[in-house]
Amino acid sequence: MTRDDTNGVITPATKLRRKLESGEFILAPGVYDGFSARIALEVGFDVIYMTGAGTTASRLGHADLGIATLNDMRQNAEMIANLSTNTPLIADADTGYGGPIMVARTIEQYARSGVAGLHIEDQVQTKRCGHLAGKVLVDTETYVSRIRAAVQQRKKIRSDIVIIARTDALQKHGYAESVARLRAARDAGADVGFPEGIRSITEAQQLIADLAPWPVLLNMVEHSVTPSMSASEAKDLGFQIMIVPLATMSPVYRAIKDSLQVLKKTGVPNTEFSPQQLFRVCGLDESVEIDEAAGSANFEGGVDQQ
């Protein structure tokens, strides 16, 4: 996981790091499984984000309450990251799943899985979604030890994986504590700051100013505590990354529910595309090309219905 492998190929982690270093604004839609990631790639996003809430909901069928383990999250991240070698994936890594030793293991596991960046937060191990009330945080010393362990391990394995330091202190401890924690994480070597649960545009402007020139990430969760804003508005405010965790989960919930309600009421399927179209989103044509290039004839008769 070095900057350039022996063939001169740039890793996704290096691509993400170079985007940050160049000052480029990054918009990353939240994806939660292989299909939603494929759609985001088909649309043409050049960075995508694996949401922890979406991973927990899709893989485990549970709310985001610290139920997903390192293995749950890493396996999902690895599958998504390896759908494209050209598109960096930023992934939720919750609390790092333990003390410094576990945080170091998380960094190594995510890096080996092809993840380009990840965020680690300051909640207790039995965490909850950042947009739920009643969060409990570890002390600043414990939080900084997580970040320091992450940075040290990144350097040890010679990876460019981007370390994003998230704090949930705004709700629990207020603005001053949030800034102090993010500055401490920055001093420990984190690449990006992630103040969770920003409550107003004014607060966003102040955070960016107080942390400048450090890159700051906006978690754009609509219909919650953070005011809705577009990517252009976030960029104009000075954010460098904007993730949209519900970008795929929200529309798919409504679409699936509406379709199933029609099916339950009428007994008539209500689908929009064919199996061939579905599989093409998921790389069917690329798979056929691989087979043909290997001199095989498994798909000589084609795959479309005549």
The total domain count is: 2
* C-alpha end-to-end distance: 46 Å
The number of helical segments is 13
Share of helix among residues? 40-55%
State the CATH architecture of the largest domain. Answer: Alpha-Beta Barrel
Low-confidence stretches: 1-6
Q: Main sheet, how many strands, which sense, barrel?
A: 8 strands, parallel
Q: What characteristic shape results from the CA principal axes?
A: globular
CATH class of the largest domain: Alpha Beta
Beta-strand proportion: 5-15%
Pfam families: PEP_mutase
Catalytic activity: (2S,3R)-3-hydroxybutane-1,2,3-tricarboxylate = pyruvate + succinate
Keywords: Kinase, Pyruvate, Transferase
InterPro entries: ICL/PEPM, Isocitrate_lyase_ph_CS, Pyrv/PenolPyrv_kinase-like_dom, Pyrv_kinase-like_dom_sf
Q: What attributes does this structure have?
A:
306 residues; alpha/beta; TIM Barrel; 8-stranded parallel β-sheet; 47% helix; Isocitrate_lyase_ph_CS; methylisocitrate lyase activity; kinase activity; pyruvate; kinase
Task: Summarize the structure in words.
This protein folds into two domains: 2-249, Phosphoenolpyruvate-binding domains (TIM Barrel); 254-293, no CATH class. 47% of the residues lie in helices and 11% in strands. It contains 13 helices and eight strands. An eight-stranded parallel β-sheet has the order 6-5-4-3-2-1-8-7. Helix 2 (34-43) links the parallel strand 1 and strand 2 (48-50). Helix 4 (70-81) runs parallel beside helix 5 (100-112), helix 5 crosses helix 6 and helix 8 (175-187) packs parallel to helix 9. This is Pyruvate/Phosphoenolpyruvate kinase-like domain-containing protein. InterPro entries: ICL/PEPM, Isocitrate_lyase_ph_CS, Pyrv/PenolPyrv_kinase-like_dom, Pyrv_kinase-like_dom_sf. Keywords: Kinase, Pyruvate, Transferase.
